[in-house]
Amino acid sequence: MKKGQLILIFSVSIFASIIGAYSYKTFFADKNPPVTVVNQTLPVRVISNNSVTGLENGFITASKNSTASVVFIKTESEYQRQSFWGFGFDPFGRIGKVASTGSGVIVSEDGYIITNHHVIKNADKIEVVLSDSKKTFKAKLVGADPSSDLALLKIETNGLSPIKFTNSDQVEIGQWVLAVGNPFNLTSTVTAGIVSAKGRNINIVNNQFPIESFIQTDAAINPGNSGGALVDLEGNLVGVNTAIASKTGSYVGYGFAIPSNIVAKTIEDLKKYGQVQRGFLGVEVMDIDGDMSEKLGAEHGVLVRRITGTNDKASGILEAGDVIIKVDGTDIDTKSTFDERLAYLRPGDIARLTIYRDNLKKEVNIELVNSEGTTELITRVSESSEILGADFELASKLEREAYGILQGIKVSNITNGKIRKMNISDGFIFVKVNGKQFNTVTELIGYLEGQKGQIRIEGISANGSKQYLSFNFY
Known about the structure:
Blueprint: H1 3-27, H2 49-66, E1 70-82, E2 89-106, E3 112-115, H3 117-120, E4 125-129, E5 136-138, E6 140-145, E7 150-154, E8 176-181, E9 189-200, E10 214-217, E11 229-231, E12 237-244, E13 255-259, H4 260-273, E14 283-287, H5 290-296, E15 302-307, H6 312-315, E16 323-327, E17 330-331, H7 335-343, E18 350-357, E19 360-367, E20 383-385, E21 390-394, H8 397-403, E22 409-412, H9 418-421, E23 429-433, H10 441-449, E24 453-460, E25 466-473
Antiparallel strand pairs: 1-2, 1-4, 2-3, 3-7, 4-5, 6-7, 8-9, 8-11, 9-10, 10-13, 11-12, 12-13, 14-15, 15-16, 16-17, 16-18, 18-19, 20-21, 21-22, 22-23, 23-24, 24-25
């Protein structure tokens, strides 16, 4: 390349650079460039220092006050699968011991711990690991309430850090809460969110008479959080984390907790009586929508569909078509809130109802009954079988009336034995075995223990559906 050509190319390059710089400065550059700050970090978003500090302090306080009260729960159980042929248990189908994990909340210094029933359901072995000392204890099941998905455990120790309770009725939608638990075996994990809603019914409790009035939160809850604590910014218990709404099995923004007031009543009943004392009004109710509300003339409440006959005291006072708008002075918006208010009461307690009938409001008082239709507190009467690996008790009057059966025997507390081989769950009611009905628990246990070969069972599942099962005993 000639010398003249090189000079021309060089001159054009310089000219192009000058034009480019001038264009950027004219059309793109900020005419008021920022002042350079040396040795100083500027926040991306400026918020009041007091509010940020206050919220952060709340999270720290809540974490400090609650993490020592939340424990890691490990369970172990035998699992056996049925044959591919559909004729019962396959003796070669055993897959050995299955371990699972969850969380629990310490509620007393002397070792009482509340958790979800589904965390310890059918467990042959339950262990509790403390979050502060990492000590491991063997736990005993004091009692369980499948209808609310709660269970009470006991470990033999003292000097624990029990959680403090708050009144879940006073929890507000929008307030900050923290979920404390052990998701994916990550012990002592804390996540934050708000209360998104109250009184949620998501139809997950597999029971004939479920109580679902969950507190909804967007604090991250994942598998392993079940049985852990949902707390306020003081670290006080708002609820027991129970479920998530997810198509993937992991957190997608919706978590649900059992309100602390239901938890407190359940603990008291299980400690005192070994079972939850539920008071029944003796009616079936349903939610009302906007069109029904307009026709009935009631702005809110639940509609009485029918009088069941379980509670004679309600038969002469309530009528089908009544709208129950208040229970003990509390407004009733949904069936969930109605069930929650009754869950706080026991047999013999008086429920003060405000009803709407024929465009008139009326207050009535009705004494609640137990599942047998009396006002006495229930004492659980059951028999156990090591061979069958379960407890058995007569189905209650309430259950017999609900399912239209004359007699039935309910199974619970299933451990390793013949019942588990049949893949039968807690709450199943035996109606007939090989076409035979049984009037006493002892008769059924004796028959099942001695049974070999094919066995046909007619019964009712824990969710109230009829089932017909067939198995081979070896």
